[in-house]
Every structure is written in structure tokens, then in C-alpha cells.
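Researcher: I'd like a candidate sequence for this fold, 480 residues long. If you have to choose between options at a position, lean toward the conservative one.
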């Protein structure tokens, strides 16, 4: 079968897009190709990353970045037998709706499949966007490799677990790959890799040739705000260190990479596997650096692991702190001790690892007192070795425990499925509680910016951010 996979345009608050490496589509393409199918990928975001169109979503004015819908449709091979679109974000429902209408208008008889976080979280919503018109034929729930292969191989839809469609009586069970070493590396030769090589996972221009690598899937933890489980599940599955090293060597040979961005949610969950991976990186001495940008879980780290991270080429690690108040951490179900946070940051400081910390404000239960307690704690962390903080306002993603709790308590400002706001450097909020209103939570966010990231905050106030960074002395740029 001839299959076309599409990464649609994305929404952003500004014109500077984060260019995803599209590993999800790469893995599905590789899996289908391994079983004899012909696959093409259209990455409209990367290919059209200079095409920014101002559009309105239900609650915000944003930029839609990527190829136009007509351009995407024109690139679909006329011999295609099945079309798949990835929907990586819940708040991209509008793009999926608009693009699907265009695709079906041109190819009404070709099966259209969507997968990713949006349909995995809300399959019924994804199928009901067209007021009675059957535009999307199938929704893949969870990981896409197995359902897409079975569908492409002619297995009847009603016999495929992980597939949902109009008329199906109940939502199907997600499918997950158990042994990740058994699936091929992402089919990067089908993707516009040159568009990815000089952009890191935070959207910044990178001097090094960088690519993303995923070494594990799933998360056994139950943080109330996290929306990863509908796609990857609660069971953590990991690739072997040997398999990861083989992929890195391939990227060195094929693309001349100098830096690897590990994008796992839980790369260090198994200390034995993490230790083995670091040992192999040190032994192989591949001449690369690496980062763990999605946030290492602090209670999986110790001095020995951190020392090996340093020696193996780790130059950027992000730590998922979220709050400096133990009561708020408990409310988030983080299972994290503030003393452990301080210990690990202190070790990082002594080793010169300069970690970044994720910090969330505006979580239900956060009083002004607990907020200030959190800020004071984070200021102590900066003295101990924390480089800077990546700040966010608590966002209730649909179907998460945080969403359900806020709906029950009446905390949501916008109580509908398209309430998920786009957040960049522009503060937005969708939760108000007896402890804070909308203005208060925005005040807390800006206060945290001023206290924890003062150079970036005041530089942005005085000059456009890009100009400000050019004027900052070289020795201070690393704090940004």
C-alpha cells in the first residue's frame, strides 16, 4: 500500500516556531516500510516554517505556521491509498478540522486516519467535528505503529485494537510497543532533516548540528497536570543502551550530528539503564554533547549519575521541580521531596552542570503565601547552582486529573474542549480559585520572572528580546 503521512501546520503565539523532528511519523513510516509498504511524509511545519499567517482560534489570535492547506493537498501523491495526519496537540483541533476538509474534498474515497495526543485523548470529539459529515475515517488511539500496519495490511477495522471510527460502539483499547529495540529507527530519510539540524527543542537557533532521539516511552507516575498517558500509557518501556548508541552512530555517519536532544519524559527512570547508557557514551567517546530537555525526574538522580552525565557530554539538563512548596507538590501528586531537590541542584552546581528548572505557578491550592515560599526556595536553588527557570502557568489539559478537578470545583474560566490556550512568553491563564483571580495569577507569573530570570525579563522590557541578547556580554549569555 502507498501511504502519505502529514505533519500539519502548528499554532504559535509569535513567528518563531519550534521545529519538531517528527519522530512519531518517522517511527510509523519506518515500521510500515519494514513490512513492505511505500511511505511518503509531508512535514508542512518544517517545509513552511517561514510562512506565518495570523488567524483566530476560539479564544486567541495566533500565528499558523507551515504550508498552506492547498499546498499540502497538492503534495499528496495521486497514487496514495491511505492518508495519515498527526495531531500532536489538543489545541490544534481547528487545524485538523480545516485540513481534513481540504484533504477529503480532493480525495473523498481515500481513507483518512488521524493520531496523536488530540485524538487519543478525545477520539469522539475528533470524529464529531463535521456536523454529520464523515470526514475522518479512523482515529488511532495510543501509539500508531501496530494499528496503522494492520489497517494498511487489510485487517478489518472492527478487528483492530487501538482504532476508533464512526459507528464503533465503544472506544477501543490503546496499543503499545513492548520491545522498543524491535522497531527500526525513525525513517529520517523521508523527513526534511536539514530543516531540523540547527534548531533545538526549545526553538532556539543552535550552533551545533542537533537531532532528537527518543529512548523510552510511557510514564508510571500520575502527575495531575500531565497529558502524556493517552498516547504512551503508564507502562514505561525502554530501549537498550546498545540500541541507542547504534542510532547515535547512524546519526553521526548520515547527518554529521554534534549534539543529541534526548526528548524522553523519563530517560533516567531506570538507574541501571541510565548508568549503562552513560557508560557507553563515555566508552565510545563519540565527540558529541547531549541534553535532556523534557525534565529529568529528580528522585532518580544521585552524585554518581550526575558525574557521569558531565563526563559523557551532558551540557543541558532540565529538572522537573514545578513548585518549591511541599504542599503544592503533594497536590500535584509529584512524589517529590524539597530536600532532595536542594541536594541534587547543589551537586549540579558543584559539577558545573547549570541545570534549568521547570516551575509552575497558579496551581489550585497555591495561596500568596505558598507562592512566595516557592519563589524563596527557587532563589536558594539559584545560589546552589540552578541556571535559570522555565516558567509556566498551570494549564488544565482535557481529561487530566487537573482538568477534572477544576471542572468539578468550577475553577475553569472557559469550560469547553477548546479552552486550552497557547502559551509562549505571553502569560495566559484558565484557572481561577478562591486563592487567586486572573490578575493575581498573571502578577505571580511576572513576579516569578523578575525574581528568577531578571536579565531576560528586564532585557525584554527595554529592547526587543533578540536585540537585548546581542548586547548581553558573552559571559552572561549562558544564564538566558
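Model: Candidate sequence:
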Amino acid at each position: 500500500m502507498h501511504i502519505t503521512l502529514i505533519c500539519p501546520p502548528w499554532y504559535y503565539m509569535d513567528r518563531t516556531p519550534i521545529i519538531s523532528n517528527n519522530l512519531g511519523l518517522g517511527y510509523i513510516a519506518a515500521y510500515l516500510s519494514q513490512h513492505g509498504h511505500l511511505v511518503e511524509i509531508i512535514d508542512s511545519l518544517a517545509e513552511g516554517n517561514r510562512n506565518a499567517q495570523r488567524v483566530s482560534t476560539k479564544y486567541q489570535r495566533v500565528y499558523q505556521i507551515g504550508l498552506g492547506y492547498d499546498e499540502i493537498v497538492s503534495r499528496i501523491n495521486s497514487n496514495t491509498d491511505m492518508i495519515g495526519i498527526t495531531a500532536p496537540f489538543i489545541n490544534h483541533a481547528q487545524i485538523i478540522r480545516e485540513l481534513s476538509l481540504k484533504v477529503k474534498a480532493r480525495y473523498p474515497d481515500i481513507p483518512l486516519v488521524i493520531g496523536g495526543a488530540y485524538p487519543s485523548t478525545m477520539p469522539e470529539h475528533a470524529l464529531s467535528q463535521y456536523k454529520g459529515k464523515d470526514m475522518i475515517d479512523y482515529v488511532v488511539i495510543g501509539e500508531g505503529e501496530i494499528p496503522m500496519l494492520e489497517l494498511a495490511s487489510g485487517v478489518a477495522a472492527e478487528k483492530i485494537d487501538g482504532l476508533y471510527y464512526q459507528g464503533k460502539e465503544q472506544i477501543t483499547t490503546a496499543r503499545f510497543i513492548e520491545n522498543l529495540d524491535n522497531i527500526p529507527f525513525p525513517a529520517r530519510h523521508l523527513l526534511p532533516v536539514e530543516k531540523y539540524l540547527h534548531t533545538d527543542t526549545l526553538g532556539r537557533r543552535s550552533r551545533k548540528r542537533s537531532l532528537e532521539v527518543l529512548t523510552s516511552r510511557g510514564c508510571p507516575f500520575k502527575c495531575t497536570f500531565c497529558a502524556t498517558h493517552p498516547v504512551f500509557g503508564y507502562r514505561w518501556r525502554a530501549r537498550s543502551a546498545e540500541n541507542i548508541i547504534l542510532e547515535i552512530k547512524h546519526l553521526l555517519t548520515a547527518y554529521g550530528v554534534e549534539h543529541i536532544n534526548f526528548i524522553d519524559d523519563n530517560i533516567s527512570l531506570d538507574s541501571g539503564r541510565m548508568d549503562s547508557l552513560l557508560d557507553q557514551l563515555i566508552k565510545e567517546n563519540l565527540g558529541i554533547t547531549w541534553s535532556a530537555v523534557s525534565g529529568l525526574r529528580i528522585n532518580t538522580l544521585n552524585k554518581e549519575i550526575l558525574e557521569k552525565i558531565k563526563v559523557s557530554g551532558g551540557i543541558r539538563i532540565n529538572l522537573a521541580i514545578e513548585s518549591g512548596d511541599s504542599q503544592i507538590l503533594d497536590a500535584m501528586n509529584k512524589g517529590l521531596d524539597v530536600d532532595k531537590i536542594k541536594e541534587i541542584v547543589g551537586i549540579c552546581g558543584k559539577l558545573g552542570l547549570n541545570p534549568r528548572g521547570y516551575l509552575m505557578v497558579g496551581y489550585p491550592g497555591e495561596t500568596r503565601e505558598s507562592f512566595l515560599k516557592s519563589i524563596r526556595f527557587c532563589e536558594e536553588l539559584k545560589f546552589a547552582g540552578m541556571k535559570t527557570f522555565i516558567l509556566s502557568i498551570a494549564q488544565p489539559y482535557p481529561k487530566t486529573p487537573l482538568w477534572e478537578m477544576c471542572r468539578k470545583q468550577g475553577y475553569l474560566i472557559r469550560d469547553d474542549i477548546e479552552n486550552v490556550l497557547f502559551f509562549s512568553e505571553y502569560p495566559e491563564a484558565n484557572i481561577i480559585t478562591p486563592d487567586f483571580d486572573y490578575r493575581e495569577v498573571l502578577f505571580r507569573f511576572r513576579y516569578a520572572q523578575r525574581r528568577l530570570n531578571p536579565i531576560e525579563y528586564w532585557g525584554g522590557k527595554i529592547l526587543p528580546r533578540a536585540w537585548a541578547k546581542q548586547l548581553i556580554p558573552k559571559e552572561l549569555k549562558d544564564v538566558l
